[in-house]
């Protein structure tokens, strides 16, 4: 166990990080280091103040990774140091993998501050936790055994009830319950203890290797190869077991990664263990029996609720604002004539020319603002000629005014045609003329309604 008190500046802490790294690489046993590191590991451990120093945080996290240390969490306040409006977690206790393996129930508690601006840390070490019954869990390592598929097939083909007339979810549920019992029996009797099988396979490989060295016959070589194949399969099952147990998908370069997964399982077990629990009245329990009873009582109170009196939906106090005839008119589906009239009242209209001037709409080829000199052209005019110029355009030396720059099919009001009978194409007319025509149209409609 080591205790540290780090300096306040980033540069002054670097020698300490180097010494801790060298010490971690020189020891082989369990190790625990704690104290005031004067730095946070992430931004969530700081509230208030200016922006934290990310370079110093990176140096601290690098040291933790190089030393193979783990932070297993804590109980109590989230911060261990306070000054004015700044709160930080500067004090912590870190453990290596062997410490967690030897003392899996270790936990840290942040006590309340008295005079100092730092919170004292209390490290508790428990030798082991009480063994409890666990729920059924499907093991991925079973899939690597050849006899596993036969167990599944035989269980699924066997009938559940004598008449075999029960179908649906009841039949599926019954087969799953029977399969769970079969797998428990198969794991205990056939599959047996995986770790004992691995030790036996290692001993057998070692013995056959010695025999083969003395007598390198074909039979001894085949026996040695079979023993190695069995050991390889058992080691693959062990890796699948620890990988599922650790719930980690990380791959580490090495032989079987079992050491890494074992450390992850121990860390996960340590963090998931409940050391203390607060009751509804504010008191806390620290024994396993009282913690279990407190959890059972909590969920009993949730599901055993009192009878709920539902309010009666009485709408008599809501006053009637409209009569039945108006209500029927509001909820009535509109007729086809109303829909047609609503379309006719739309403010966006296309006015057609008088029937005496044009009986049909111009074709797409004619609906272009070409100069009159392009009538006899066999090809399309150039972009320079494709302008809405009044005819004739040959004698003009300057561009026309905005009033003249219009399509020949869109005459202005006051040129022998009424506004209601003019042909208006909104994409051809200048915006200022469109605005003027719309204002006149709305004004005339308003006076007509008055």
Automatic annotation (TrEMBL):
Name the Gene3D superfamilies on file. Answer: Endonuclease/exonuclease/phosphatase (3.60.10.10)
- Biased segments, Polar residues type: 394-404
Any Pfam family matching the protein: Exo_endo_phos
- The membrane spanning regions, by residue number, are none
Q: Which InterPro entries match?
A: Endo/exonu/phosph_ase_sf, Endo/exonuclease/phosphatase
Q: Domain Endonuclease/exonuclease/phosphatase: where?
A: 12-118
Region: Disordered, residue numbers:
353-422
* PANTHER family the UniProt entry points to: BNAC02G09200D PROTEIN (PTHR33710), DUF4283 DOMAIN PROTEIN (PTHR33710:SF62)
Name the chain's protein: Endonuclease/exonuclease/phosphatase domain-containing protein
Taxonomic lineage is: Eukaryota, Viridiplantae, Streptophyta, Embryophyta, Tracheophyta
């Amino acid at each position: 166990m080591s205790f540290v008190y780090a300096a306040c500046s980033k540069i002054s802490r670097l020698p300490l990080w180097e010494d801790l790294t060298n010490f971690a690489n020189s020891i082989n046993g369990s190790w625990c280091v704690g104290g005031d590191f004067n730095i946070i590991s992430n931004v969530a451990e700081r509230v208030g103040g200016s922006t934290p120093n990310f370079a110093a945080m990176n140096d601290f996290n690098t040291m933790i990774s190089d030393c193979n240390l783990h932070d297993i969490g804590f109980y109590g306040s989230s911060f261990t140091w306070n000054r004015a409006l700044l709160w930080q977690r500067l004090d912590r206790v870190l453990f290596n993998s062997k410490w967690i393996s030897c003392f899996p129930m270790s936990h840290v508690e942040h006590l309340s501050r008295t005079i100092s601006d730092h919170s004292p840390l209390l490290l508790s070490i428990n030798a082991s936790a009480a063994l409890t019954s666990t729920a059924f869990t499907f093991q991925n390592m079973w899939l690597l055994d050849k006899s596993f598929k036969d167990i599944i097939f035989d269980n699924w083909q066997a009938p559940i009830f004598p008449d075999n007339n029960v179908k649906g979810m009841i039949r599926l549920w019954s087969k799953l319950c029977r399969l769970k019992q079969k797998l428990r029996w198969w794991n205990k009797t056939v599959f047996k203890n995986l770790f004992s099988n691995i030790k036996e396979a290692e001993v057998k490989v070692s013995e056959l290797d010695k025999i083969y060295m003395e007598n390198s016959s074909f039979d001894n070589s085949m026996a040695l190869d079979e023993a190695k194949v069995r050991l390889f399969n058992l080691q693959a099952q062990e890796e699948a077991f620890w990988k599922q147990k650790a719930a980690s998908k990380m791959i580490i370069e090495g032989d079987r990664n079992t050491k890494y997964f074992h450390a992850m399982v121990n860390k996960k077990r340590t963090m998931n263990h409940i050391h203390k629990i607060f009751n509804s009245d504010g008191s806390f329990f620290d024994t396993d029996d009282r913690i279990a009873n407190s959890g059972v009582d909590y969920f009993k109170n949730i599901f055993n609720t009192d009878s709920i009196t539902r309010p009666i939906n009485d709408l008599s106090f809501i006053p009637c604002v409209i009569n039945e005839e108006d209500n029927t008119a509001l909820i009535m589906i509109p007729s086809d004539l109303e829909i047609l009239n609503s379309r006719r009242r739309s403010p966006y209209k296309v006015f057609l020319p008088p029937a005496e001037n044009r009986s049909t709409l111009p074709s797409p080829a004619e609906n272009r603002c070409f100069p009159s000199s392009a009538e006899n052209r066999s090809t399309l005019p150039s972009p320079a000629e494709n302008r809405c110029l009044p005819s004739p355009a040959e004698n003009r030396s300057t561009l026309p005014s905005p009033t003249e720059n219009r399509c020949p099919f869109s005459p202005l009001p006051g040129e022998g045609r009424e506004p209601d009978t003019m042909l208006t194409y909104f994409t051809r007319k200048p915006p200022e003329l469109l605005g003027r025509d719309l204002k006149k149209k709305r004004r005339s409609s308003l006076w007509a309604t008055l």
